[in-house]
Design brief:
48% helix, 14% strand, globular
């Protein structure tokens, strides 16, 4: 279903993100968990794309399989790094032929295992280049939906480490919307005030598309440190750090603090009328299910009321 139809149907979107498993065992385990996620009736689920296209085939296969099974509406990530036009075009055609309706267009992470990689040689330097390619594909009429793919992009409420100038960063984001992006999903954050301020700044910049909040519960000290590395600038409020430090020798307690914090975030975001919440699940259903229970919700429909 095209993102505009999803938003029209749901009003407030609730969605989950997965990464394609690298082994057959992990693949089977994720598919088993899918029942738990599907029971929550998400607006859609997204599937990540490894650095430099390292999970390209597994991403494609998982997205197409989820579409065929029909329990959830999958949205694949697609990245620029180490890709050329002749690689992107068949991926778009396969998704179009499979009835995939939306794509999240990202620049993507640089491959850490390729010291010889030179990003200046990439045909697509920025996410906007990929947005423009998808837009041209849409205009070619190659997609069965006359509107083509709905196009999503990423936003960074706490700033992007490669663009310290916040005014310029929002200009870049607006340019992606002007190029054809239909919605924006934010990077994870732990300070709602920062997200609300970013939303207001987006509106001042003339960005009118839905802004979906990215939420990831902390499930351990190591996970927290990895979040800081991945997000490149994520702020962990002192109040949250104090709670984590208080229980740092108790893994279960740290996890509970993380789930409770995420639940508090979601409650406040819903109260403030957020356009949507996107859960970064790390392929685990337990923490997400606990958040839903903490919100007093059986499924996403009860969160949209």
């Amino acid at each position: 279903m095209h993102i505009s139809d999803i938003i029209r149907r749901d009003g407030k979107t609730i969605s989950f993100e997965f990464f394609p498993p690298r082994t057959d065992t992990a693949w089977d385990a994720l598919l088993e968990r899918m029942g738990a996620f599907a029971s929550l009736k998400p607006s859609f689920v997204s599937v990540t794309y490894g650095a430099g296209g390292s999970t390209r085939q597994r991403t494609n296969d998982l997205v197409v399989r989820l579409k065929e099974e029909g329990h959830v509406d999958p949205i694949p990530h697609l990245t620029c790094v180490k890709h050329v036009h002749d690689e992107i075009e068949p991926i778009l055609r396969r998704y179009a032929d499979a009835g995939i309706s939306n794509i999240l267009a990202l620049r993507g992470d640089y491959p850490a295992d390729d010291p010889e990689y030179d990003p200046s040689t990439d045909e697509y330097q920025h996410a906007i280049d990929l947005v423009r390619h998808i837009k041209r594909f849409n205009e070619s009429g190659a997609h069965p939906d006359p509107r083509g793919f709905g196009i999503g992009v990423a936003g960074f409420p706490e700033g992007h480490p490669e663009t310290p100038n916040r005014l310029q960063q929002l200009e870049y984001l607006r340019e992606k919307v002007d190029a054809g992006a239909d919605w924006i999903t934010s990077q994870m954050f732990f300070d709602n005030a920062c997200f609300h301020d970013w939303c207001e700044r987006c509106r001042l910049e003339g960005i009118g598309v839905p802004l979906i909040a990215g939420i990831m519960p902390i499930t351990g000290i190591r996970t927290m440190r990895r979040m800081a590395d991945l997000a490149g600038g994520t702020n962990f409020p002192a109040k949250l750090q104090r709670r984590i430090i208080r229980h740092q020798d108790d893994d279960d307690a740290v996890r509970q603090v993380g789930v409770q914090w995420a639940t508090e975030q979601c409650n406040e975001l819903l109260d403030q009328g957020v356009a949507g919440i996107h859960f970064y699940t790390l392929n685990r259903s337990d923490a997400t299910l606990e958040i839903f229970r903490g919100l007093g919700a059986r499924d996403t429909e009860s969160l949209r009321r």
